[in-house]
């Protein structure tokens, strides 16, 4: 798995799977995410991760975050069908729904598709963790955001 600090610029609507995954994460996240749920209808994918994972960054009604700091709105994990531990979180930047990040927790795979929603459990759940390495949200995105 090679996380490249470069990204691929695009401009396209979210796929149905991307939209349903982000919606589910926002509905099951911490706090009141209604502001960000309402932004989801105006979201477009503007950046893909060059490493091959299925992570995407958004614009909302053509606006992109001006500030680099991020706040995680919902943080979950799942095991792939091959038993690899992966994570998924949705985040905001500068008051805008900014992206969906999918990453490997155990370092054994690159999650290149949306997770099955029924397999998602809160990040750090003991039933799936098995003492695996758990990077912080800032560390997880550091490779993707280094050159922004």
The portion of residues assigned to helices is: 10-25%
The H-and-E topology, N to C, reads as EHHEEEEEEHH
Radius of gyration: 14 Å
Largest sheet: 7 strands, antiparallel
Global morphology: globular
Structural class by helix and strand composition: alpha+beta
Strand residue percentage: 25-35%
Physical arrangement of strands within the biggest beta sheet: 1-2-3-6-5-4-7
Overall tally of structural domains: 1
Euclidean distance between termini CA atoms: 21 Å
Give me a quick take on this structure.
The chain has helices spanning 16-27, 34-40, 126-129, 137-145; strands at residues 7-13, 43-49, 56-60, 71-79, 85-93, 96-104, 121-122.
Describe the model.
With 148 residues, the protein is α+β, with helices and mostly antiparallel strands. It has one domain (7-145). The chain contains four helices and seven strands. The protein has helices at 16-27, 34-40, 126-129, 137-145; strands at residues 7-13, 43-49, 56-60, 71-79, 85-93, 96-104, 121-122. It has a seven-stranded antiparallel β-sheet with strand order 1-2-3-6-5-4-7, with helices on both faces. A hairpin with a 2-residue loop joins strand 5 (85-93) and strand 6 (96-104). Helix 1 (16-27) packs antiparallel against helix 2. It is globular and about 40 Å long. The two termini are 21 Å apart. Mean pLDDT is 86; it is low at 142-148.
């Amino acid at each position: 798995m090679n996380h490249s600090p470069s990204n691929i610029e695009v401009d396209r609507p979210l796929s149905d799977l991307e939209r349903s995954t982000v919606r589910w994460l926002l509905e099951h996240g911490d706090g009141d995410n209604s502001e960000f749920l309402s932004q989801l209808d105006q979201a477009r994918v503007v950046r893909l991760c060059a490493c091959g994972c299925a992570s995407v960054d958004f614009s909302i009604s053509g606006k992109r975050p001006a500030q680099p700091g991020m706040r995680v709105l919902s943080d979950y994990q799942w095991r792939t069908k091959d038993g690899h531990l992966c994570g998924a979180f949705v985040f905001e930047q500068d008051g805008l729904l900014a992206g969906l990040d999918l990453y490997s927790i155990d370092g054994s795979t690159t999650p290149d598709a949306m997770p099955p929603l029924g397999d998602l459990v809160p990040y750090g759940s003991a039933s799936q963790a098995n003492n695996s390495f758990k990077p912080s949200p800032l560390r997880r995105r550091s490779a993707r955001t280094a050159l922004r």
